[in-house]
Amino acid sequence: MAAEIVEPPCLHMGGETLKVPLKLFAVNRERLCKQLKEDQCQEGAVVVLQGGEQQQRYCTDTDTVFRQESYFHWMFGVKEGDCYGALQVDTGKSILFFPRLPPEYAIWMGTIHPTDHFKKKYQVDEVHYTDEIAKVLESLKPSVLLTLHGLNTDSGHLSREARFDGIAKFTVDNKFLHPRIAECRVIKTPYEIELLRYTNRISSIAHKEVMRAVKPGMMEYELESLFQHICYSRGGCREVSYTCICGSGDNSAVLHYGHAGAPNDKLIREGDMCLFDMGGEYCCYASDITCSYPVNGKFTEDQKVIYNAVLKANRAVMAAVKPGVDWVEMHKLAERIELEELVKCGILHGDVEEMMKVNLCAIFMPHGLGHLMGCDAHDVGGYPEGVERLKEPGLRSLRTTQVLREAMCLTIEPGIYFIESQLERMLANPALSCFINQQVLDHFRAFGGVRIEDDIMVTATSCELLTDVPRTVEEIEAWMQKGVKVVA
């Protein structure tokens, strides 16, 4: 009789969705312990993290859909809210703490599981209740508790430091952990890379179906809805990595369109350029993909000019990426290529090197070239402690200035936008306006924008392209002419 095949414990949404091995989180904990020890962590230290809390909508009893806090997920993979976790640095012992639920929970929310259930589910050494945290930690006799307190350089917000009844009796260090765990998240493990490949594959499929479905007369939110439907129904992605950006026409020049005040609610019209920036999230790992194309599936000559300029910058950066490359230089490479192409089409005239000196490209691409990606779309670690942002226009918007290393995951997302406030500022500045051909600029002024965003993984010698969508003008037109094919 053949031996039964026992699959390793995993997180899974069922069906054909990816099985994420719990080994991913065990390896992350091992890496963190190793990093802390290498940096002379105090002997007997214990890491303590507080997970995300289940929230209600303002003063109501309506639960919001819970999504785990990213550092806590990176360490433990726990789906449930209101938990704590501890990691003994010397031994690697992992401990989770779950809330002690009232009997009524079983009526409204389902089975109340014992602690052994969670020990098996998450493959940790011990599980206790949250009202036992102080007692359990005391039994470990820690020399110090390492708590998480540090700045997220994208949001400007501080990470939430663990708090619990009885913490005052312990020695607490809230400085040592944050820079080291953030650095661990910058470099991805093979398990994480496989998960990021999956989120990109599902999101790429969804983007391609949106490309086939879009047509004049649709509302922008219809395409947002279709993208989310395919990511969830096909890939098990209950969440998206960020608010979907479905800009058409002049909205394609609004970098973070789709917010509550402009909820993808414009009618898409014949001749509009669409800029759809959307990414599914699976098991709290992100994707971030932007596709730009004409709504009718056929580029005009003007649309080709701007699109191909951005694509050329995108592909030039992709060809140059490898370990040891300075990300700031990649941003400048994209800027230089875009300026050269804007000279060729007549919008600009003059010496490109002189344009670079006055940061002219920041008018047309005011954002950075790309960002780190992982448990968050704008992942942590872009600016290690002590590293300051650059001050120049364009460069100051970079979300990282790191030198690239193997197993970093980043986006490459150059763009060209005709943003009225930016153009007015340029025309009012003689140091910038001297390069402008006013008549040609006016012809493109209502164009909107183009962004081409791909997700890549830095390899030992170059990079792996994770995104799989049509990119050249010819590929896009051929794909869109195939007509509607919505994946059920």
Q: How many beta strands in the DSSP annotation?
A: 18
Oligomeric assembly: single chain
Structural class: alpha+beta
The percent range for helix content is 25-40%
Task: Write a concise synopsis of the structure shown.
This protein has 488 residues and is α+β, with helices and mostly antiparallel strands. 34% of the residues lie in helices and 14% in strands.
Provide an overview of this structure.
The chain is built from 16 helices and 18 strands. The mean pLDDT is 97. The chain has helices spanning 23-38, 70-76, 105-108, 115-122, 133-140, 177-186, 190-213, 220-235, 301-320, 327-344, 352-357, 361-364, 420-427, 430-433, 438-444, 473-480, and strands spanning 10-11, 20-21, 45-50, 84-88, 94-98, 126-129, 144-146, 172-173, 239-240, 245-248, 273-278, 280-281, 289-294, 409-412, 415-417, 449-451, 454-458, 463-465. With 488 residues, it is of the alpha+beta class. The strands form six sheets. It has a six-stranded mixed sheet, with helices on both faces. Helix 1 packs across helix 6 and helix 9 (301-320) runs antiparallel to helix 10 (327-344). The chain is 34% helix and 14% strand.
Can you give keywords for this protein?
16 helices; alpha+beta; 3-stranded antiparallel sheet; 6-stranded mixed sheet; 18 strands; 488 residues
